[in-house]
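call fold target=Response regulator
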Amino acid sequence: MDKITTLIVEDEPLLAEILVDTLKQLPAFDVIGVADKQESAKKMIRLYQPQLILLDNFLPDGKGIDLIRHTVNTS
């Protein structure tokens, strides 16, 4: 079974670490990266094309929903 490639977008370092540690214990998931801002998330999405994005809605440079809209419109 192929692993679900997962990108975590979270600006709170402790929460991002907890999410990474939790997903690493689950064999179905492969964490391919962690981004703490929209701009770095956009680059990682283009580069890695994750199957799943765990997304914080309130980021330092904008809202998570805006990142979703951007991703859908550029796909």
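return ok
The longest strand covers residues 29-35. The helical segments are 13-24, 38-48, 64-74.
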